[in-house]
Amino acid sequence: MSEVQGHWTDRWEPLVNAFRENMAEAGEEAAALAVYRAGEPLVSLWAGEASPGQPWQEATQVNLFSASKGIVALSVLQLVDARQLDLDKPVAHYWPEFAQQGKSGIRVRDLLSHRSGLSALQDRVAEEDIFDWDTMVERIERAEPWWSPGSAQGYSPFLFGWTLGELVRRITGAERFNDWVADRITQPLGLGLGFGARGEVSLAQARPLKKALGGASNGADSQSLGKIMKADPRGVTNKAFSNPMTLLTAANTEQWRQAEIPAANGHSSARDLAALYGALANRGDLGGVRLLSEKQLALCGDELTFEQDRVLGLPLRFGHGFMLSQKRADCRFGRGRGGFGHPGAGGCLGFADPDYGIGFGYVTGRMGQSLLIDPRPQRLINALYDCLGEAP
To answer: Global pTM?
Structure first.
């Protein structure tokens, strides 16, 4: 078992022990955890190797997969804050070409809450297409919704990012979506996270977790997803995750790391992810840098939809781009009623719990099978709040 390194005080020793237990009992080999409260770092832990022969560092970045979506949502809400974007206006108001194929009535709010019907592309997508922004934007413009927009909830694993990212570009005039995120989010906070992985950074490889974990409830794992896909090979779930297969297989490639795939190729350390959500849990402020006004911050945890999801086949609760807490352990973002965040395939997780002032970031180089909050961060969340006690 790798030695746990980091920064913590005696109060958080039970949390450190839970991190050690993940390494000893859950097959964890390479991971990091960070926690902020009231805008200040409480804990930062890491262990293992980022890649063979390369020790994990505090700044080691991991591909976040769908935990990237919170960054996308924040960038959109910042434009609402600046009065450059109206959530109830049609997307086509800002992006006229988007109106094709019955999409003229889709509102920005529909995209954020996964109620647009744009959960997947129906026409075959070439393997290389996902690495080219303009190609994917043109495909989205020509895409037809799977159902009447606004009539049902269907998680959008990948199109969510390109669609909202292009909307941000259209409004701001930014050359690249990642440039806007860097200018308005990461650079003001002094963070290294972003879409793709560029420059000299310690980067963890994504590998399968060798040990199967229990703890997923209501069939929220890759096995249940596989059954949905097998039952309807041409259906929305199948298309959402495997059109093309590079969506599932390319995360360790240079092409993936050089591209912008905002719903799935955000790269971050645990510390930076926790700092970002720490700001959102601290009235939108971190170190005197304000990301959102309190009015727009309230939208992060404001429920827009809660029903059986047509893509993932389980009940999910969404606000404006963020998943919201449920009572089940694999959907519980802290212990406060207003917790919000986003898990990523394989185990990464970022969330804010405004009731407790907590910003939480967990990243792993070993991908488990859970679709939502993996049993490894579940163990860490329980230990964290045991240390905090029951009262906010």
So the answer is: 0.96
